[in-house]
Design brief:
This protein has a single domain, classed as 4-Layer Sandwich (Deoxyribonuclease I, Chain A), CATH 3.60.10.10. It is 19% helix and 28% strand. It is built from 6 helices and 12 strands. The longest helix is centred in the middle third of the chain and has 15 residues. The radius of gyration is 18 Å and the shape is globular.
Length: 286
């Protein structure tokens, strides 16, 4: 399948595509076993564009509309990075349009990194021009996966929620890409806050377009006890990180064993990684 997708990118025929969200299906995915550690990664991949300077936003802007032969090479480098993680949240993926060579980038990265489960959330459907999407990659079979359209003045922002482990007391991972505006973030995080209110073991991860201090102090997330990354975890821009826009926020019940900004400049954002330990007693509960 992976080789077939590569051939599609290098030999685009321009036939009619059926752009839509997708999922690998879970029948072939291993059960969520009682691992004590789970390696998480969140990455805004900027539809596979390698941006390493502010002027590239101008000189490489055409790659947001048209295919580029080196995009697949960058996706392969991203896939090599993803192989080291158990659950990956992806933002700014293309679900299969002209600019990506009609390749579903979530599926491509899952297969190229040998991660068995993938789920694509199509948030903004521009037909053959662009398929703006979020993505989930997972080595474990989730209990269920749901997608949510986040509120905002402009449509096109979404979140994916994957639950793992016990039905009665699941591990809940929420993957999101928030709006740029503060008012939009207020509404979106209020919505997220309601979704996670009844769970003990929660991870929020994604491109949140804001610093943790404001997210946890000036938005509805202040009503939670989520733990942020260190304030020095700057992820944007990738070539000179000065702002902490990408986050993994976790409940106190989940022990953070390791967290880092991964020095892998393959997009205009750097990836964020975290190794979490499940709470004591949870591993033997099912």
């Amino acid at each position: 399948m992976y080789k077939r997708i590569r051939r599609q990118l290098t030999d685009v025929r321009g036939g009619e595509a059926v752009p839509r969200g997708g999922c690998s299906g879970a029948d072939h995915v291993p059960e969520f076993e009682p691992h004590r550690h789970i390696r998480l990664l969140t990455f805004n991949i900027q539809v596979g564009i390698n941006t390493s300077s502010y002027h590239h936003y101008v000189t490489r802007s055409w790659q947001h509309l048209l295919p580029h032969r080196r995009r697949i090479e960058n996706l392969d480098r991203i896939a090599a990075l993803l192989r080291g993680y158990d659950v990956v949240a992806l933002q700014e993926c293309d679900g299969g349009s002209l600019r990506s060579g009609y390749i579903n980038q979530v599926q491509y990265l899952a297969e190229a990194s040998c991660i068995p489960y993938w789920y694509q959330q199509l948030n903004r459907n521009l037909g053959a021009l662009a398929q703006h999407s979020n993505g989930l990659l997972s080595r474990f079979r989730p209990l269920d996966v749901t997608e949510h359209r986040l509120p905002g003045l402009l449509p096109g922002r979404g979140a994916i929620i994957a639950r793992y482990g016990s039905e009665d007391d699941p591990l809940v991972l929420v993957m999101m890409h928030l709006s740029l505006s503060r008012s939009g973030q207020q509404r979106q995080l209020g919505y997220i806050r309601e979704l996670i209110a009844d769970y003990r073991h929660v991870v929020l991860m994604g491109d949140m377009n804001n610093h943790a201090e404001e997210l946890l102090g000036q938005t509805p997330l202040k009503e939670t006890d989520l733990i942020p990354l260190p304030a020095t975890a700057h992820s944007f821009p990738s070539w000179r990180p000065e702002r902490a826009l990408d986050h993994i926020l976790v409940s106190p019940s989940l022990e953070i064993r390791r967290s880092e900004v991964v020095s892998c400049p393959l997009s205009d954002h750097l990836p964020i990684a975290m190794d979490i330990a499940l709470p004591k007693g949870y591993v033997t509960a099912y």
